[in-house]
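the three lines:
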Amino acid sequence: MNTIAFTTAGQELVAALDPRFGRAANFLIYDTDQKTTRIIENQQGRSAAQGAGIQAAETIVRAGVDTLVTGHCGPKAFKVLDAAGVKVFNCNAATVDEALQELLAGKLTAAENSDVEGHW
Amino acid sequence: MSKDHIRELVVLSGKGGTGKTSVTASFALLAKKAVLADCDVDAADLHLLLTPMVEQRHAFMSGHEAVIRQHDCTGCGICMDSCRFDAIRREDISYRIDPVACEGCGVCYRLCPAKAIDFPDRVCGEWMVSGTRCGPMVHAQLGVAAENSGKLVTTVREQAWAVAVDKRIPLIISDGPPGIGCPVIASLSGVSLAVVITEPTVSGLHDLQRLLALARHFSVPTAVCVNKWDINPQQTERIEAAAEAAGAAILGRIRYDRSVTQAQLQQKAVVELEAAAGDDIRVIWKQVTALL
Amino acid sequence: MAASSRNRSYRIAVASGKGGTGKTTVALNLAAMFGEPVQLADCDVEEPNVNLFLRCDQLEATEVTMLVPEVDQQRCNGCGACGELCQFRGIVAIGTRALVFPELCHGCGGCALVCPTGAITERAHPIGTISVGQSGAIRLIEGRLEVGVSLVPPVIRAVRDHLLDEIPAILDAPPGTSCPVVATLRESDYLLLVTDPTPFGLHDLKLAVALARELNLACGVVVNRAGEDLVGLYGYCQSENLPVLLSLPDDRQIAEITSRGDLVARVLPEYGLMFAELAEKLKRELGTTGGTP
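prediction for all of em together
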């Protein structure tokens, strides 16, 4: 795991984890080697009429992300992430930081499939 | 105020014309504090009863449209040949794109050898934030012939949520769109409760069933109310039985009452008049608050 | 479209800016009293209700399909041109593959055109069903959108494609003024707008009239639940040169009969006459003027 994306409406590790992926406001990208963070806005996903999850997935794949931690992930987004080799972890932690800790402690299992219907 | 403390109620109908907007307006009056959202963006009518004072207007952009720059066009016709939507016609020595038929797919823009086609963002309507006698209201109007994907509905809902959080108002009441397509899905997913207003007709039953199936698909709790029930008491019973079988709560019934039109004429909600239907709606509202 | 330039029988679309004004009721009763063989097309493909009243059980069903891309992954070189062109995320280039999402595809064919290796072909993807049947003198064409499909206009276009040229047609449009309605109105010769004398009715009629003007369609009005005109509906129609071809009274019997799934024109003779008269007026509008506005 090198580059992890977390869905959030905020800007820092203490921000709340957004349970949605396709319509999340931002992706907080955490580099496990450098231990640095950066923010990518989910512009495409938020403004898409349809296929928001796909847009969001394309955005994080282009950013070199190999792991996604979010509340829920729909089927189309999952298909794109899976094709790109991005591991998806569903997590109901309240903040990004808590989610990161759970991930690093091995408490989360990689998803085999989407866990909600599209448009959730 | 955190988002967890806010409840969102959407009022839907399946079929149009069942009285959804009239009932929504009455709910708005009966609620102590609520943000109103008019998600019926194709034929928005809630504002006719709540008379909003517009505070902000925003253009709604969605997709693109292709536009030919006539003086750069060489008249080769490749655009027309490649358009699957019959949107391009010959005009004198060049070609013209019908903006109503243009799907915004970008194929002609991509293929034009003279690069004579522009592909700007498309303005598809507008959305507004306003004040009403019941609280803040977010509403919109889709442009004539615009595509109705649900994106404008999503925009209205998001803005309503932002207002609710900002003004610490714990309830959002949404006037939903008719049908079962993308606009309805956009208004339905993630709400606390979907109230369906239907009518005692064969169409009313048919469309209710389709809508309840959709709500189940998105795991949204539903509650059903038959409006103008006394037009056909037998059909009313059939509808209530079908609703219960589909797992929906039964809220009660509203009788046929000409006061509904009177209220519209006075730009008021039915509960603001002395009306039997208003009393029925008050009873329904009590049930709704119990469910929320 | 002028009568002389039309090489087929005329088409009347019945629409309203708002749902629930009685559009389907008018279309059905008009078809029932048309006085000659007529086609009735149910273009409200998300919620087709016409056959609830006609109760045609001998229906011939045809699948409606739309062309969506199919990718030969062996030929795909991962260039990404398809994903770059696609405005709808119907095809997405990820890594060295192209993924297809048929439910988002609009069928524009662009991806197949720009693919440099010929890896993309198109296949027919089911999006709905057209059912055709006969009920007396009415030939029914019903369009039904497949559940879960989001793109409506292609199914409506398929309904129009199933219309015969030799017989006049009445098209029951979906409510509103957005693109499903436009798809219904294309190549119609006349637009019959159904409204009622309420503030909602008048407000939404104006939206529908704006659409009619945009599409250069001649139109006339049917007022349902007519009573005291407290909103200036008739004045508006006059100022806009919109002929009011029929005013149906606010008669509870109409609501009751319709709620049962029956046609008021067939149950009550006075309404039968009104709809027969509406049919004659429309034939005159289309015969002499050809429907030019």
